[in-house]
Write a structure and sequence with these properties.
The chain contains eleven helices and ten strands. It is of the alpha/beta class and 332 residues long. The protein binds 5'-O-[(R)-(carboxyoxy)(hydroxy)phosphoryl]adenosine and zinc ion (ZN).
């Protein structure tokens, strides 16, 4: 089955063609990061307008790169939430219209299920069940993936998502947007020598909380500035990143132990983090578990993961009606 996936929930207009949920034929990502950078974050109105401009060329580029025609497509999937409502509406409406005009089934996809499925494209041998640590700019989840479109959420963030914490800390230091990749790069040159808090919450909780850590970093920077003392940005990045990653790693492994599962996947934008990948891999070696993460281009937003999720969702639940709506707060 050949699936055309469309993603427009935030600041990337993406279209991809995937076969049977795992084989990638093309992956077009038209990023708006350069435009939003000057504002320090995504401006929703600008995002919607740019999606409208980019969507048609992205669809044609995806077909061209895959060397396929519209007549080769069997299923269309588009993100329906969570995300920015105006941005979601562009991809969802385009997807529905394309499916109607080509007389093809249509599936409205949960963006977060898409992130889980990104790993199936990079690792064709990966099969549920496994634990997925899903860490993006808007959400953090610890999930038991029971089957391709069947999962239980064991933990979620109570305040800032992991990626959001990276972005906010980076913004305060004025080192760039999005913050994750910059912090990741600078952390490699720094030392984890500052004592930032690890927030574990209740003993048995799989939830996360990163706003206290964010505030601790801000307080540290303010106090250094007030005293006129030197701030070593690289050390702040290394220490902040270690604090985030330690909590993520510890909770993911604890859940895997509790569920008796030997496979842990990470996905979402923060799964691109080199420090997190290394920490998870080191821990996995010690306790005999396996870690999977997507290739970097599939960690952050893309439509290949949406096409993959559309396929598994279609196999389990069939097509959606055109009355399906965009939902900015759609939960997993
Ligand atoms: O999954 P994603 O592209 O969008 C959402 O669905 O939110 O994630 C974007 C988030 C941003 O917060 C960005 O700073 C973070 O992922 N990110 C990273 C890295 N690359 C992207 N965080 C830490 N380290 C990275 N290398
Ligand atoms: Zn995302």
């Amino acid at each position: 089955m050949i699936i055309l996936g469309i993603e427009s929930s935030c600041d990337e207009t993406a279209v991809a063609i995937v076969e049977d949920g795992k084989t990638l034929h093309s992956n077009i990502i038209s990023s708006q990061i350069e435009i939003h950078k000057q504002f320090g974050g995504v401006v929703p109105e600008i995002a919607s307008r740019k999606h409208i401009e980019a969507i048609c060329p992205a669809v044609y580029d995806a077909l061209k790169e895959a060397k396929l025609n519209f007549s080769d497509i069997d299923l269309i999937g588009a993100t329906r939430g969570p995300g920015l409502i105006g941005a979601l509406l562009v991809g969802l409406s385009y997807g529905k219209a394309l499916s109607f005009s080509l007389n093809l089934p249509f599936v409205g996809v949960n963006h977060m299920l898409g992130h889980i499925c990104a790993n199936y494209i990079t690792h064709k041998d990966l099969k549920p069940p496994f634990v997925c640590l899903l860490v993006s700019g808007g959400h953090s989840y610890l999930i038991e993936v029971k089957d391709y479109a069947d999962y239980i959420i064991h933990g979620r963030t109570r305040d800032d998502a992991a990626g959001e914490a990276f972005d906010k800390v980076a913004r305060t230091m004025g080192i760039g947007y999005p913050g994750g990749p910059v912090v990741d790069r600078l952390a490699k040159k720094g030392k984890d020598n500052l004592d930032f808090p690890r927030v574990w919450l209740e003993d048995d909780s799989y939830d996360f909380s990163f706003s206290g850590l964010k505030t601790a970093v801000l307080n540290y920077l303010n106090s250094k500035n007030q005293k006129g003392e030197e701030i070593i940005i690289e050390d702040v990045c290394a220490s902040f990143q270690a604090a985030v990653n330690e909590v993520l790693t510890e909770k993911a492994f604890r859940l895997a132990d509790e569920l008796n599962l030997d496979t842990i996947t990470i996905s979402g934008g923060v799964s691109a983090n080199e420090g997190l990948r290394e920490m998870m891999e080191n821990r996995a070696k010690i306790c005999g578990k396996e870690i999977y993460y997507p290739e970097k281009i599939l960690c952050t937003d893309n439509a290949a993961m949406i096409a993959s999720a559309a396929y598994f969702q279609y196999l389990k639940y069939g097509a959606d009606k055109y009355s399906i709506k965009a939902d900015p707060n759609l939960s997993l």
